[in-house]
């Protein structure tokens, strides 16, 4: 079998280039052999003296026929090659010695040499370069022997050269044949391995798809009861509880949230590894994504007295095209880890672009945390891996976050890396490729010009102070900095003495030696120039503390560019600025609902616990709530009555949410009714789920577990209010995407 494979093996490219010249040479050699055979027979008829050489010439002819026979048996070529070499060399030697001994170099001498070489060129290994070499030796021998005297010493040299050439050619042929056979065997093995790999790949993909489907199903099955557990815990938190009861409830909420986060990580990792995650390409603001992530993590950071700082280069475009949800997920993992493993100091996020590569975004997350040993860095991005088992016991976590980061970054055409020094901190870097819009938005005319403005920035945190200095300097301001309240107070007094007071004074409200309020009391300058940086939390208490001082400008940490620039621009002009809350306040009681209007809302969910949770959430709202237990019942109720808003669970028995929404939209179109806002409730907030809900006809998408604040805010955003009626969003143009993440 191996010989067959070897014979069927493809020739190398070099052999293919000379295969036709080799065939031509072989054909010529065959003609020469036949011509010489005819010449021998002709000499036998004309010269009586030929009989003295007849046995030798007949022997040469028989040997030539033997060699030709060997050439017709390619499967036995390897076995017959040593014998063929001996015969070929012997024919050359005997013929040359006989010719020299007879003191003649006549046609007889040439005939036999040409006969032996001609037959040799027909051997199976003569294809390729070996055939060309045979032809050259044949031509040189014929030319030399035809015109050389018998006793010429060069004839001996030529004979030695012929024998050496034949030996070298035979050696090359031996190794070449073995090499071709090895290649043939390798090709067979490669084809077999390729077949096995294809089968293994198909099996792995099938297993991965099955795993993903199982995890997706389990995610829904786990999220549904978790939605009820966490939701009811939130409802219970609004009741009057003792200190001990509230502590127990906080434990339930915190551990339930941690379990839900683990479920999300496992599901995301499974989807990435199975290739089921696709990236969107929508316009988004990189700055806004970073600032919102920092805002989301601000409470956790402020509990540990950590500063969250964003340092975004001015070259970063205002808008890019890509998947902001996945970028946010990467940042949440990296910055969340930095907050988790940092006990004091700061977490700094640096955003830059690469001048040499348009659309390439480079992000760095610096922290002053515990650091990571050098021998643990290489495996840090592997699933379920943490730098140390003691780290997991102390800080918690599954070790999936960085694995998800690495895979999402790879999907975005970038790379992820980490540098760390134990006890000093870590720097996580990643790059991601995004497209640029055809008409980029210039920000020069949208941001205030601070030229000729002298501004003092006082903050004891180095990263925060430097980020604000760079931001204000980019807008043309002359910036002085102070790393403590005492230094800030000295700079303010010196500027006042020199009759060159600062136009704006940005101070941190919680510096260790002198806080911002104490500086304002002792500064002896107009308090309207002050911009107070607040750590968040109880904003009302902070404003009550500063009102007697006449401070009307505030910004919340982590600092946002637009809020800081607006506050600094209005400082000293008696124009008050207050931080914009992250979300619109939602009513908790019926009399607090704007206008007191009543809506008819249909909730479709197969879980009785979730339906009970919705009732608890909406008990103080003035709306009429109706429920459906599956998609078929939801369609029937919608057709029978008029609803202002529909919440549709996607995974339900009998008829699922996708089919139910599509049927409702078809019925509305047939009846020529205005589309009713429909909000999809799903177990995940990935791109594929959002895409499918949009295609079905949903206006909004929110993921479980459903929070009360999210639910009430969604109702306010979806339904026109009597005070300022807002038309319903057309199909295919959702109002916005809402996620509880």
Secondary structure topology:
Layout: H1 2-7, H2 13-46, H3 54-71, H4 77-101, H5 107-120, H6 129-147, H7 153-237, H8 243-273, E1 282-284, H9 286-303, E2 307-312, E3 320-322, H10 324-340, E4 346-354, E5 357-367, H11 389-395, H12 401-411, E6 416-421, E7 425-433, E8 454-458, H13 462-474, E9 478-482, H14 485-497, E10 504-508, H15 516-523, E11 530-534, H16 539-546, E12 553-556, H17 561-570, E13 600-604, H18 608-617, E14 624-628, H19 631-640, E15 645-649, H20 657-671, E16 678-682, H21 687-696, E17 700-703, H22 708-718
Helix pairs in contact: 2-5, 2-6, 3-4, 3-5, 4-5, 4-7, 5-6, 6-7, 7-8, 7-18, 8-12, 9-10, 10-12, 14-15, 19-20
Q: What is the oligomer described by this structure?
A: single chain
Describe the biggest sheet? 5 strands, mixed
Per DSSP E runs of 2 or more residues, the count of β-strands stands at 17
Regions with little confidence, pLDDT below 50 for 5+ residues:
1-19, 47-53, 70-77, 121-129, 389-396, 580-592, 722-741
State mean pLDDT (0 to 100 scale). Answer: 73
Q: In order across it, which strands form the biggest sheet? A: 2-4-5-7-6
Gross morphology: globular
- The overall number of domains is 4
SSE class: alpha/beta
Total helix count? 22
Distance between the termini: 63 Å
């Amino acid at each position: 079998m191996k010989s067959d494979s070897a014979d069927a093996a493809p020739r190398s490219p070099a052999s293919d280039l000379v295969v036709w010249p080799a065939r031509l040479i072989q054909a010529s050699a065959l003609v020469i052999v036949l011509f010489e055979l005819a010449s021998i027979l002709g000499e036998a008829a004309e010269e009586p003296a030929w009989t003295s050489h007849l046995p030798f010439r007949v022997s040469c002819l028989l040997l030539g026929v033997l060699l030709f026979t060997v050439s017709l048996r390619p499967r036995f070529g390897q076995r017959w090659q040593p014998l063929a070499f001996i015969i070929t060399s012997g024919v050359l030697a005997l013929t040359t010695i006989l010719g020299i001994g007879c003191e003649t170099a006549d046609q007889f001498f040439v005939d036999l040499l040409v006969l032996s070489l001609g037959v040799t060129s027909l051997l199976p290994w003569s294809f390729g370069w070996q055939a060309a070499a045979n032809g050259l030796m044949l031509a040189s021998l014929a030319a030399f022997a035809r015109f050389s005297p018998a006793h010429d010493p060069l004839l001996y040299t030529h004979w030695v050269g012929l024998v050496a050439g034949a030996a070298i050619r035979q050696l090359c042929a031996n190794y070449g044949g073995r090499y071709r056979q090895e290649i043939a065997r390798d090709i067979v093995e490669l084809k077999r391995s390729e077949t096995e790999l294809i089968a293994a790949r198909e099996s792995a993909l099938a297993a991965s798809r099955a795993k993903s489907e199982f995890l997706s199903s389990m995610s829904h099955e786990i999220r549904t009861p978790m939605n009820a557990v966490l939701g009811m815990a939130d409802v219970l938190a609004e009741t009057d509880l003792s200190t001990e009861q509230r502590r127990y409830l906080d434990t339930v909420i915190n551990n339930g949230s941690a379990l839900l986060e683990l479920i999300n990580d496992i599901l995301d990792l499974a989807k990435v590894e199975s290739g089921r995650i696709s990236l969107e390409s929508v316009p988004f603001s990189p700055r806004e994504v970073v600032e919102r992530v920092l805002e989301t993590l601000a409470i956790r950071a402020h509990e540990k007295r950590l500063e969250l700082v964003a340092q975004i280069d001015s070259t970063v475009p205002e808008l890019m095209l890509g998947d902001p949800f996945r970028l946010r997920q990467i940042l949440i993992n990296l910055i969340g880890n930095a907050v988790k493993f940092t006990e004091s100091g700061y977490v700094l996020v640096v955003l830059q672009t690469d001048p040499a590569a348009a659309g390439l975004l480079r992000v760095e997350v610096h922290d002053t945390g515990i650091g990571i040993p050098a021998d643990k860095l290489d495996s840090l991005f592997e699933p379920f891996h943490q730098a140390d088992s003691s780290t997991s016991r102390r800080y918690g976590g599954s070790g999936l976050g960085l694995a998800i980061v690495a895979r999402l970054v790879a999907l975005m055409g970038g790379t992820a890396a980490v540098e760390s020094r134990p006890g000093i901190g870590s720097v996580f870097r990643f790059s991601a490729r995004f497209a640029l819009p055809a008409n980029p938005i210039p920000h020069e005319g949208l941001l205030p010009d601070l030229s000729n403005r002298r501004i003092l920035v006082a903050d004891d945190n180095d990263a925060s102070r430097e980020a604000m200095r760079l931001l204000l300097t980019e807008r043309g301001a002359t910036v002085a900095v102070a790393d403590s309240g005492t230094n800030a107070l000295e700079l303010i007094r010196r500027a006042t003495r020199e009759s060159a007071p600062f136009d704006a004074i940005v101070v941190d409200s919680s510096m260790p030696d002198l806080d911002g309020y104490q500086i304002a009391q002792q500064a002896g300058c107009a308090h309207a120039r002050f911009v107070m940086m607040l750590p968040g939390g109880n904003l009302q208490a902070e404003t009550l503390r500063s009102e007697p001082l006449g401070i009307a400008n505030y910004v919340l940490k982590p600092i946002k560019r637009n809020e800081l620039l607006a506050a600094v621009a209005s400082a000293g002009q008696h124009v008050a600025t207050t931080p914009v809350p992250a979300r619109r306040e939602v009513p908790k009681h019926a009399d607090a609902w704007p206008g007191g209007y009543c809506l008819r809302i249909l909730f479709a969910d197969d879980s009785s616990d979730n339906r009970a949770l919705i009732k608890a959430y909406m008990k103080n709202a003035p709306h009429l709530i109706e429920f459906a237990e599956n998609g078929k019942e939801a369609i029937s109720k919608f057709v029978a009555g008029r609803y202002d808003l529909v919440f549709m669970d996607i995974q339900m028995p009998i008829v699922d949410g996708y089919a139910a929404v599509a049927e409702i939209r078809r019925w509305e179109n047939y009846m020529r009714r205005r589309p009713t806002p429909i909000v999809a409730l799903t177990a995940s907030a990935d791109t594929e789920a959002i895409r499918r809900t949009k295609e079905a006809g949903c206006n909004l998408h929110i993921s479980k577990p459903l929070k009360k604040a999210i639910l009430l805010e969604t109702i306010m955003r979806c339904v026109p209010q009597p005070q300022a009626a807002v038309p319903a969003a057309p199909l295919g143009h959702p109002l916005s995407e809402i996620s509880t993440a």
